[in-house]
Amino acid sequence: QVQLVESGGGLVQAGGSLRLSCAASGPTFSMYAMGWFRQAPGKEREVVAAVSRSGGNTYYADSAKGRFTISRDNAKKTVYLQMNSLKPEDTAVYYCAADFRPLRESVSMVLGEYDFWGQGTQVTVSS
Hints:
- It is a single chain.
- The chain is mostly beta strands.
- The chain is built from no helices and eleven strands.
- A hairpin with a 6-residue loop joins strand 5 (46-51) and strand 6 (58-60).
- It is globular.
């Protein structure tokens, strides 16, 4: 069982930056690939970025490439999402999620493959 708590969301002007954090509980954090997802009002939840259990492999949605960076610190059981050059269309609730992959260094972009989810943190980008 993994519990995830996101933090770092808020209101920022377009062009600004935010750093989201997701703190995990439980002894097996390093066995999980981690992902950041977002859901805007009236839209489906979508993947933003994902990182493999060791941090060696990452994936970014096209909308995040070049602006967002996902990273993790297994000693701190925390995954981060650094978001730069924010746009109003980045406004959404951001969720972190954990995908149990004890033997693989791959990542998944599929929501249904993630086993545990946080409650989300709101990011609002004003124009």
